[in-house]
Amino acid sequence: MKSFRLLAAFLFIGCYVALAASAQEEIALSIYVHEGNLNGTMLSDVRVTGQDAEGSSLTATTDANGIATIKGEPGTWQLDFEKSNYQPIELSYDALQTEEVAAYLEKTVSSQPITLTTYVYEGSLNGTELSGVQITGRDAAGGEINAITDANGAAVISGTPGSWELSLAKAGYESVANLSVDATESEEVGAYLEKVA
Fold first, then answer.
1. What residue spans in the chain does CATH classification 2.60.40.1120 cover?
2. 81 partner at 20 to 30 Å CA-CA among 14, 25, 34, 131?
């Protein structure tokens, strides 16, 4: 009889401990999603999906301020971040308490060629337009760039988006070599050359 009461007491305590463990309090993560880096512009309409520590599904979308709040069981959470025209990412968070965290998405780089209209000026970006400037270099895929500015100091160059290396040269002016340009979309850019002293 004594062993029966002892067994019943252990079962009662075991059930109580199991119930207490399964009734852990949910926590909330407020996730601030930025563009490009953690100091970038806040991104709205980012879809956040994943699982909490218990394997329960989590889903939220960032609001107009770039914030999504998700509630779940404490522990390690696996989260996926997706938005059109941005590279999706997967992150793992040690979500042990209610807190604010941050993430960032980078724009998807298109493989479609882009066009840079490059304006070259004398002395400064406010100087006179320079015609006859030789622009050479490589686009992100290693494609050759070779153009000469027109009477308005402009040259239209096309290539694969990404990091471009350009050099500018004109007789009587100091050359600019290995100018890095982050060419991710078609746009207008400016540069200048200084006269040789």
1. 24-105
2. 25
Q: How many whole angstroms separate alpha carbon 158 and alpha carbon 161? A: 9
Q: Whole-angstrom Cα distance, residue 120 to residue 127? A: 9
Alpha-carbon distance of 107 to 54, in angstroms, equals 32
Name the strand (E) or helix (H) holding 2. helix 2-22
Q: How far apart are CA 45 and CA 51, in angstroms?
A: 19
Which pLDDT tens digit goes with each residue over 63-117? 999 999 999 999 999 999 999 888 899 999 999 999 999 999 988 766 689 999 9
d(CA 183, CA 165): 10
Say if pTM beats, i.e. exceeds, 0.85. Answer: no
What is the CATH architecture of 24-105?
Sandwich (2.60)
For CATH 2.60.40.4130, the residue range(s) in the chain are 114-193
Spatial contact of 23 and 92, defined as CB atoms under 8 Å apart? no
**CA–CA distances in Å: residue 66 to residues 56, 63, 104, 127:** 24, 5, 10, 41
Q: In sequence order, which residues have a C-beta less than 8 Å from that of residue 80 and are 6 or more positions away? A: 48, 49, 50, 88, 89, 90
